[in-house]
Design a protein that fits this description.
single chain, about 625 residues, Immunoglobulin-like, TIM Barrel, 3 domains, eight-stranded parallel barrel, five-stranded antiparallel β-sheet, 14 helices, elongated
Length: about 625
């Protein structure tokens, strides 16, 4: 037994087994040394483990590992960088090969081997460090790297995507990019959400150096990088984590708790301290070794409830007699606490479809500790409203106003994500009813409404120019459509509203309380019109937003305003440049000393059909 390895790492191994090692990649996995490679893997229940690969002709008897405290170790003198390897594991009368759970690179699918490569730390910069991220602008462009740009049917690598995407994001006034999962995964159609290599940057788009070029290019342009991360469940593929050492290891021995039938995956078992070390270290790894700025945690509800996607089953109850996943909750709290302690400026987001309270409150307050939560309720209500024929919208006006009853209960992101433009849900523009010209007018109004409401913003790639087809992971976005006026106009509209959002303090400086928002008129259901004001810390710095969700044009329409001063229209979604009819409010809008709605004064405006306008007081 190589005492040197176990002596060197005894404290790290003890911390790993306690669930308190957050840098397990420093000793587990394959680490190139001067004369060979050190291999170490957690497989406490295996009878024998050996490492086999290019360096020994894939002979499982050539490099048998030694075990202590559940960790198997071997030093292989002939191994070198770029060698492919796996672990051959024997349990009882079964012998099988597994990819390394802490491999830093994997072969390109359909191959499943792990690859020896070095890994470097110290990459985290934290673009949000020192900022009040809750009351700062956050405008996120969600991207699937395989289909945002392609060369025919071939993927571009991380460098090529960066060279195209960075100037586009700058032009469009986004300050964050969110990448769908980049951990290695076997099936393209899973989009990266069913993972086999948690520490492996997917080889589909190149190398670690290529991705570091991507993140550095983004950072040099002032754009933060967020990655989707899936700590709740993992892929069943034979070479992956399932029954890793001959029985349940990363998953629970309780088959009902382990099974995730809706997704065909297995849930992580957070009763095991080593699994906690493994997953928190994984989040740390992506921040520390690749320099991303934050994570968006997928399917949080699956970690909160044992019954997620299963229905109530007595066997799934916890020690308290309910169906909450107590260990999953503790893991989330610990993960958020650790990340924020280690990396000031990190951003963590929850994609949570449940009604769990205090998602964005600290663990010390009984919360989960996320910085932000996707506002799925707002998204679902808003899109269900927009899908209706305008004649029926007045009956469900509260779908738009209800969100303000809970808008400040969490720190929210308003998302129109990839999930809303797949599986028969239609693209964003095709959700809108009516003739084609009406569809685009409504989408422009919807985006104006979204960007003016409290909460951070997220839009999936292609939504910004109103692409016609649903998103298809195997084809490039329909960039060619920008040659046509309606798509180019849609893009111009979003670029301008993005710019206005990013530069206007009223839209984000007081984003987490009623001090930054006031209804002008929330009750005009008959005409399906909403109006509201957004305020900066300086109450004299505000915007008034009016959105008309019907095809009716209104002239001399009274809009309540908070201050008796002149106004000007600074944005109109019906602008000719956006593909509209150019029904604008030109010149100075002079107020009247007449109250309207919730406001003490009013101005008269022209509202275009399916139009949104933004007014600003003249100084």
């Amino acid at each position: 037994m190589n005492k040197n390895f176990f002596d060197r790492h005894k404290d790290e191994i003890k911390a790993f087994n306690r669930g308190e090692n957050y840098h397990i990649y420093r000793f587990l996995g394959a680490h190139p040394k001067e004369n060979g490679v050190e291999f170490a893997v957690w497989a406490p229940n295996a009878d024998r483990v050996s490492v086999c690969g290019d360096f020994n002709g894939w002979n499982g008897d050539a490099n048998v590992m030694q075990m202590q405290d559940g960790i198997w170790y071997a030093f292989v003198e002939n191994a070198k960088i770029t060698d492919v390897y796996k672990y051959e594991i024997r349990k009882g009368n079964k012998t099988f090969k597994k990819a390394d759970p802490v491999a830093f690179r994997s072969e390109l699918r359909p191959e499943t081997g792990s690859v020896v490569v070095p890994v470097e730390e110290g990459k985290f910069k934290g673009i949000a460090k020192g900022k009040d991220i809750y009351n700062s602008p956050m405008n996120i462009y969600e991207v699937h790297l395989g289909s945002v740009f392609m060369d025919g049917e071939e993927f571009l690598n991380y460098r090529q995507v960066a060279d195209k995407l960075v100037p586009y994001l700058v032009e469009m006034n986004y300050n964050y990019v969110e990448l769908m999962p980049l951990c290695e995964y076997p099936l393209d159609a899973s989009w990266g959400y069913q993972i086999t290599g948690y520490y492996s940057l997917t080889s589909r788009y190149g190398t670690a150096e290529d991705f570091q070029y991507f993140t550095e290019s983004m950072h040099n342009a002032g754009i933060g990088v967020i990655m989707d991360w899936v700590p709740g469940h993992f892929c069943r593929d034979d070479h992956g984590l399932r029954q890793f050492d001959g029985g349940p290891l990363y998953e629970s021995s309780n088959e009902k708790k382990a099974d995730n039938p809706g997704w065909g995956t297995l849930n992580f078992d957070f009763t095991k301290p080593q699994v906690i070390s493994y997953m928190i270290s994984n989040a740390v790894f992506w921040l520390e070794c690749y320099g991303i700025d934050g994570i968006r945690v997928d399917a949080v509800a699956n970690m909160l409830y044992h019954t997620f996607g299963k229905g109530d089953q007595p066997e799934l109850k916890n020690a308290k007699g309910d169906y909450t996943n107590l260990e999953g909750i503790a893991f989330i709290q610990k993960m958020n606490t650790v990340l924020h302690e280690l990396y000031p400026g990190v951003v963590t987001m929850a994609e949570d479809s449940s009604a769990w309270p205090l998602v964005t409150k600290g663990a010390d307050q009984g919360g989960l500790g996320f910085d932000f939560k996707w506002n799925m309720g707002w998204m679902n209500d808003t899109l269900s409203y927009m899908k209706l024929d305008p004649i029926y919208r007045k009956a469900v006006h509260d779908k738009l106003t209800f969100a303000m009853f809970y808008a400040f209960s969490e720190n929210y992101v308003l998302p129109f994500s990839h999930d809303e433009v797949v599986h028969g849900k239609c693209s964003m523009v095709e959700k809108m009813p009516g003739y084609r010209v009406d569809k685009y007018a409504q989408l422009r109004a919807l985006y104006t409404y979204m960007y003016a409401m409290p909460g951070k913003k997220l839009n999936f790639m292609g939504n910004e120019f109103g692409h016609s087809l649903e998103w298809r992971f195997y084809e490039q976005l329909e960039w060619q459509l920008l040659e046509f006026a309606e798509y180019a106009g849609m893009k111009n509209c979003v670029s301008d509203i993005n710019y206005l959002y990013m530069k206007s303090k009223p839209f984000w400086e007081v984003d987490t309380s009623w001090d930054g928002f006031s209804w002008c008129d929330a009750n005009n259901s008959e005409k399906s019109i909403l109006s509201f004001a957004r305020f900066a810390k300086n109450k004299n710095d505000f915007m008034v937003v009016v959105v008309n969700f019907t095809p009716v044009k209104y002239e001399y329409f009274p809009v309540g305003v908070p201050s008796f001063t002149d106004y000007e229209e600074i944005f109109n979604s019906d602008d000719l440049r956006y593909g509209g009819n150019n029904i604008l409010n030109r010149g100075v809008l002079t107020p009247k000393g007449v109250s309207e709605g919730e406001m003490p004064f009013s101005v008269r405006v022209t509202l275009p059909p399916f139009g949104a306008i933004i007014l600003k007081p003249l100084k």
